[in-house]
Design goal:
By secondary structure, the protein is of the alpha/beta class. Helix content is about 40%, strand content about 20%. The protein has 4 domains: about 10-115, Rossmann fold, CATH 3.40.50; about 115-140 and about 145-180, no CATH class; about 200-365, P-loop containing nucleotide triphosphate hydrolases (Rossmann fold), CATH 3.40.50; about 370-420, Alpha-Beta Plaits (2-Layer Sandwich). The chain has helices at about 25-40, 60-75, 90-100, 105-115, 120-135, 160-195, 210-220, 265-270, 270-275, 295-305, 350-365, 380-390; strands at about 10-20, 40-50, 80, 100-105, 200-205, 235-245, 245-255, 280-285, 315-320, 330-335, 340-345, 365-375, 390-395, 400-410.
Amino acid sequence: MELFDRPDSGEKALVVHLAINHSFSEDDLAEFIQLVISANVEPVVTVKGSRRAPDSRFFIGKGKLDEVKHLLHETCADVVLFNHTLSPSQQRNLEKELEVRVLDRTNLILDIFAQRAQSFEGKLQVELAQLQHLSTRLIKGWTHLERQKGGIGLRGPGETQLETDRRLIGQRIRQIKSRLLKVAKQREQGRRSRQRADVPTISLVGYTNAGKSTLFNALTNSSIYAADQLFATLDPTLRQVKHVDYGEFVLADTVGFIQDLPHELVAAFRSTLQETIEADLLLHVVDASSPNRQEQMREVNTVLKAIGADKIPQMMVYNKIDQLPAVNPHIDQDEAYKITAVWLSAIKKEGLNLLLESLSTTCHQENNRLTLTLKPNQAKLRAALFKNAQIISEDVQENGDWLLDVNIPNRFQYLLNEIDE
């Protein structure tokens, strides 16, 4: 399901990027142009400007609207793309005035995701995000549907077309959520089996186009799709990595993040991002050659906090050092000699041994082998340990106490605080 039908030939887009209240960034514009190209659309002209606040009717002012009309006629562009969030009424007014399709930043990202989704789960998640976004557009945007119509088998007495659309969209959203819940349960079973086998899960996270998929392929000898474009990876991929010198772990490649990521996508992709939430370690992959890497790192951490993954241990991976002058693969450590970052080039396969060595050391340190005694009234704590730790053995004492031999990750050490309570 895509937000708009595509012609057989390539589409041309007119891009609008305004500085609102003196806030203008060429880097933001460059990233949006990359988004446009990633959607297989050719940006033919960019309209720039500034306003203290968006116009309530058209977002842009009358002068800019006339400029856009003129450029549309000159360039024969098929679509107008705004690097902003438009209200339903603004989008409707612009389309009526310009007589072409108008999409905002959220629409564009949703369309890219629709093109990229390959798996059954991924397609469901994209459709869910699109329907949730569309449901907000129905509030005031579809006044042409307010009139009552006949609809055999669809409507009750007096139900308007708009009310019917809302109801049908609501039904489809509930249906998709039910299907995704089943997929999430299957993923949960896989995670439980990995925990019982004491195989750590390491999740790759990072800004889009940071090189996560290239690093994933290099570490796992896989051939998942990797390209120099935004959101090349959409469906999560898991691979088991076994190495004689560095042990065994499961590596998960996930969708990249971007600034102003639509809330609909974060909500819809929660089951996919669950691999990130449940990971033992996050590899935060950063494009070391990007001049905006600090802002990109902050944006990734913002999304991680939004999905509840901000407490999981992170190891920084500074990728693409082949594009930096005089930087060789190396490891950064803190004062306690804990590994904090690895500098490497995934595409050149330089520094991978340093990363594998760091993962082996860190994952080994992240688990503690303990013998615990639990009272009969601590059944909830026992259940939590069975869910989040590896239970090596369990014996029931004569007095009813449980004696457990457990291997517990550091991130669940807080559970042990309840033993003495």
